[in-house]
Specification:
Amino acid/polyamine transporter I, mainly alpha
Amino acid sequence: MDHKPSGSQNPELVKYFGLGTGIILIISSIIGSGVYKKVAPMSLACESPELLIAAWILAGLVTLFGVLTLAEIAMLLPESGGSFVYLREIYGEKYGYFYGWASFACIQSASTAAIAYVFAQSLNAVYPLPILGGEWETMKVLWIFTPFANLGVKLAAVGLIVLLTAINYRGVREGGTVSNIITIIVVVSLLAIIVMGFTMSGGSFANLTTDASTYPPDKMGESFGFLKVLFITMLASFWAYEGWINIGFVGDEIKDPHRNIPKILIFGVLIVMAIYVLVNMAYLYVMPIDEMMAVANSENGVAAVEVIRKFMGDGGAFAISVLIVLTTAGCTNSTILTSARIYYAMAKKGQFFKSAAFVHPKFKVPTNSLIIFAIWSCVLVFSGTFDQLTDMLVFAQFIFYALVVAGVFVLRKRMPNAERTYKVIGYPVVPILFLVFCAGLLINTLIEQPREAGIGLFLIALGTPFYYYFKKQHEAA
C-alpha cells in the first residue's frame, strides 16, 4: 500500500463535476439494483399493487424532503466527506466519526456489496455461474451467515468490485466517464421498458388494482398493522433511493459547489422518482402481483427479467439481464468513487487509518482509501443475501439521515448571517416531516426485522474502540 507524503507534498483533488456531470453522478449513484429487483420483495410484503405503488411514491417524497434539507447543508459545507463533514461541524467530532465508521462498516460498503450482488445475479441469468451445492449451501458461520451459498454469484460480485476499484484508482475522470456512459444507456433503456411495457406487452390496467389472492398480509391483523406493512414495504423502496446523499462525498471535486450542489440534488432525485414510479407501474401492468410474489420466492430471481421474459421471451430476458449488468456495474462504480472520499476526509482529521489520507501524485485520487473500502466490501459480499444487506444498511443509514436533517435547525441558529444561495423549501415543515418518517422507519425495523437492525447497530458500535485508537494515534502524531 502507498505511503502518505508529508505536508504540502500531498496533491489536491481535482474539480471535475459540473452541473450536468453532477446530475449524472447522482442518478448513477441512485439507480442500481432496486429498480429491477425490489418490486418482488415489496409485493411479498404488501400483497397489493396499489399499496406497492403508494410506497414508491411516499418513499420518493420522503427522500425529496431529505434532499431539500440536505441541499442547504451541503451548500454551506461543500467539502469532500459528505455527512462525515456535516455531522462533525454540526455536533462535534464523535458524531462525524461514527457516521464515517458506520459508512465504512455497514452503509456504503454493504451498498456496494449488495449492488455488486445483483450484478452477479444478472450475469448468472446470462451465463450460469457455478455453485458448490449440497451441504455447502446451508453451512453457517457464527450461526447466521452462509458465506458458501451461491458462491459463483458472490465471487463474480467480488470480481466486479476489484475491477471497478482498479478503474477508479486511475483517476476521477476515468471513473466519472464510466458512470456517464452507463447512466445514459440505463436511463434510455428504462424509458424504453416503460413504453414497451404499456404498449407491447399485452398487460392489463386491472393488474394495477387487483390484490393478491392471499391478501391481506398477516400483519394487517395486528395493532397498527397497516402502518407496519407500509413501513416494511417502504424499507425495500428506500434501498432503491439510496445514494442521494453521495454527492456530498465529492464536494471538493464539484465546480461552483455553492450553486451546483442544491441543483444537482433536487433535479437528480426528481428524475429518479419519476422513472421509478413509471417503471414499477409498467412491471405490475405486465405481471399480476401473485406472479410477482412467486418471483420473490426464487433465490436468484430478478423481477425485471421475469417481466420482460413474459412478453418478449428468452431473448428479451437476455437483453434486460445485460442491461441490469450494465446498470449495477455503473451504480457500483459510482458508490466506490464517492464512498472512498469519506475515509479520505476522516483520515485527514485523524479519525481513520493514516494511509487513507494519501492522494496519488499522478492519478489525484485517494487510492489507499479506495483499496481499504474495496476489501471490506468484498468481505460483506459473503455475509448475507441481497435483501439482508440492503435492509441492514437502510436501517443504519436512516439513523444518520435523521441527524443530518436535524442539523439544518442547528445551522440556522449557529450561522444566521451566512450567505445561503439556497434555503430549504417548506422550512420547517419539510425537515420535520422527514424526521417523523425516520423515527417510524427505525422503530418498525427494530420490531419487525431485529436481525438486520441488530447487525447494523453492532457494526456501528464496533467503531467505539477504533475511535479511541485513532484518537490516541492522532494525538501522538
